[in-house]
Amino acid sequence: MKVSPRCYAVALMAISLAVSSQAAEVPALLKTIRDVGGKGDGNAKASAAWKELSASPAARLPEILIGLDGADPLAANWIRSAVETIAERTIRDGGTLPTAEIEQYILDTKHDPRGRRLAFDWLVKVDESARARLIPGMLDDPSVELRRDAVRLQMDKANALFLAKGQEAEAKTAYQRALASARDEDQITIIVKRLGELGETVDLQRHFGFITNWHLIGPFDNTNKKGFDTAYPPETEIQLTATYPGKEAPVRWEAATTADNYGLLDLNKIESQKHKGSVTYCLNEFTSDAARKVEIRLGTPNAWKVWLNGKLIFGRDEYHRGASVDQYQVSGELKAGTNQILVKLCQNEQTDDWAQRLQIQLRVCDGTGTAILSTNRPPTPKKDPPVEKQEEEKK
Q1: What is the distance between the alpha carbons of residues 375 and 246, in angstroms, rounded to a whole number?
Q2: Could you tell me if 39 and 74 are in contact, meaning their C-beta atoms sit under 8 angstroms apart?
Q3: Residues 185 and 325: beta-carbon distance below 8 Å
Q4: How many CB atoms lie within 10 A of CB 46?
């Protein structure tokens, strides 16, 4: 059937208007999704917007990915799902993704780290060469996932040098470069082992930024778990020379230090704190050279609360869940000068063998897990010193 020039022109105009309309709608659709409330307010509108957004052509993917910047977790889930839907449909139907624009988006580290990782995964599905082209330059990337891939590549290079004869110095340098960027415990453990075999000792406490020097006071009463919500004196005042009524006897602050590579402070090794149904407060005075946003990351099998400069930033009333490095991550802001990090550590009265741990490990870092060190950080101890009462320490 022959189509008249007029009909053809009208069809082209209709397609052009449709594409133009859709392009104009993308920002509005993203806004509707980003405006959805944490309790599901606006969920119906967001669902409708997601359907329209998911029908967008692949050319709109970079713009949609940018919509992840600053999005809250719920909105981000909607937007990531739309990206997945568009990319899957495009590839299934034999279409092409805008690879050049997606690569530009990935290389712009100002964008959301999760969005950049999502974009990278789709890019390598259609262009495997992108992995070798991009990953080597991501050793210090703010995306922890992309950084991890870059560290793994650097470790592969170091391993090859390690296995070659006469390349020990080059291998050591390569491993040290990998260590400088590594943030995940499993990778760091392997790197440290290799460096040890090359005669290099690594200060893991300093690398991770674990706090090793604490002031402790306790035990206060946590019978029937009442202590978690009971505000004992350290929650309202910090006086390191003070004495307070404790669970069984008067208590006062004492200094404690851990030499554990991963900053683990085991309170069961401290006779004054080895109590069931107890509350212990752990204080660190952290000096920062500037005001900055930080993450306080801790691991503990006990119930806990954390205050930064007298402000409660988070807590969890849960016992014996297990413990691991960076188990909990909470955000705060250091001020320039001296800051007080106060942890409330609660032990319940269970007598099971697996319920006896009373311990904490805590570090201060940025969003990528890079250590932020106190300017008054003491030298890393080689072994645990004896616990000293605060008054005796001052003599």
Answers
A1: 33
A2: no
A3: yes
A4: 22
User: Distance between CA 349 and CA 354 in Å, rounded?
Assistant: 12
Whole-structure pTM value: 0.80
User: pLDDT digits over 86-123, tens only?
Assistant: 999 999 999 999 999 999 999 999 999 999 999 999 99
* Amino acid letter for position 47: S
Residue in this structure with the two tokens 């029937």, named with its chain if needed: 224
pLDDT at 287 over 60: yes
Is 363 within 8 Å of 294 (Cβ atoms)?
no
CB 139 within 8 A of CB 150: yes
Q: Strand (E) positions, 102-253?
A: 213-221, 243-245, 250-252
Q: What does the pLDDT read at residue 42?
A: 67
pLDDT value for 13:
39
Task: Tell me if 214 sits within 8 A of 257, measured CB to CB.
Answer: yes
User: Is it the case that residue 2 has pLDDT exceeding 60?
Assistant: no
Measured CA distances, 377 to 89, 125, 240, 251, 278 (Å)? 54, 46, 19, 26, 29
Q: Using the Cα atoms of residue 263, residue 266, residue 267 and residue 271 in order, give the sign of their dihedral.
A: negative
- H/E element holding 318? none
Q: Nearest-5° angle of CA 52, CA 56, CA 59?
A: 160
Domain topology for 208-393: Jelly Rolls (2.60.120)
pLDDT at 10 over 90: no
Under 8 Å between Cβ of 68 and 107: no
Residue 89, token pair as written in the block: 């449909």
Where are the extended beta strands (E) located within 148-302?
213-221, 243-245, 250-252, 254-257, 265-266, 278-288, 292-299
303: left (phi over 0), alpha (psi -120 to 50) or beta: beta
Return the pLDDT at 40.
59
* Cα angle, residue 128 at apex, residues 122 and 131 outer, rounded to 5°: 85
Domain ranges of the chain: 5-127, 144-202, 208-393
pLDDT single digits (tens) 337-382: 999 999 999 999 988 887 889 999 999 999 999 999 999 999 988 7
Check pLDDT > 60 for residue 24. Answer: no
Computed over its alpha carbons, how large is the radius of gyration of the chain?
27
Per the DSSP assignment, residues forming a β-bridge with 215 are 255, 283
